[in-house]
Amino acid sequence: MGGVPVRVPELRVMGVDPGLTRCGLGAVEGRPGAPLSLVKVGVVRTSADDEIGARLVAVEAGIEQWLDEVGPDAVAVERVFAQHNLRTVMGTAQASAVAILCASRRGIPVALHTPSEVKAAITGSGTADKKQVGTMVTRLLRLDEMPRPADAADALALAICHVWRGGAQNRLAEALARSSAGTGTTAAAYFRGRGRAGRSRGSAQ
């Protein structure tokens, strides 16, 4: 007897492209293999002339306001990598920590995605440039123009990546739990659904 395929519910994800001068924020809603919808996009800005503590407080306030307005199921933050400019990477890491803290304090799941992972998910190439990512984000969300600045587009890319990759993985545990509880749901049926979703994503790109 075949199992009943699991319909993966829509996931609302808020992406955070961390930075002190510009912290990109973007939220999308959708499920793997289905059209995505834009919820909100923008940036939190701070002045380089301000003291570091004040800048972090401003980033926190901006992210908290977004969490209130968006109400995400999950938050996706870019994983910070070492860069040649130590001052830049330190600011990025600090803003990243603020975003993780704000979400975790509310009990919202947080996922970290590498830049190459996001690029591969959005464009099919882990070495895509910012313009290619922005172009695909615009197309996937059916926007009239590319989100600007690039930090905002990158935040949307993070959110999309998590819907397509992390979101589906998170739902697998729920599907398996329902299966073991005797609902007739099977892991095989779930993975068959993911295979169809993957083919849909490929055609969209």
Describe this structure in words.
It catalyses: Endonucleolytic cleavage at a junction such as a reciprocal single-stranded crossover between two homologous DNA duplexes (Holliday junction). Its EC number is 3.1.21.10. Mg(2+) 1 binds at residues 17, 151. The longest helix has 31 residues, at 150-180. Helix 1 (52-70) crosses helix 2. This protein has one domain (11-170): Nucleotidyltransferase, domain 5 (2-Layer Sandwich). It is globular, with a radius of gyration of 18 Å. With 205 residues, it is of the alpha/beta class. Residues 171-177 and 180-205 have low confidence and may be disordered. Strands 3-2-1-4-5 form a 5-stranded mixed β-sheet. It is built from 6 helices and 5 strands. Strand 1 and strand 2 form a beta hairpin.
The name of the CATH superfamily reads Ribonuclease H-like superfamily/Ribonuclease H
- Helical content band: 40-55%
CATH architecture annotation: 2-Layer Sandwich
Mean pLDDT: 82
Order of H and E elements:
EEEHEHEHHHH
Reported for the largest beta sheet, the result is: 5 strands, mixed
How far do the termini sit from each other? 36 Å
Examine the coordinates and then state which fold CATH places here, giving the name of the CATH topology.
Nucleotidyltransferase, domain 5
Which strand order do you get reading across the main beta sheet? 3-2-1-4-5
Q: What's the number of helices?
A: 6
Spans of at least 5 consecutive residues with low confidence = 171-177, 180-205
User: Structural class of the helix and strand makeup?
Assistant: alpha/beta
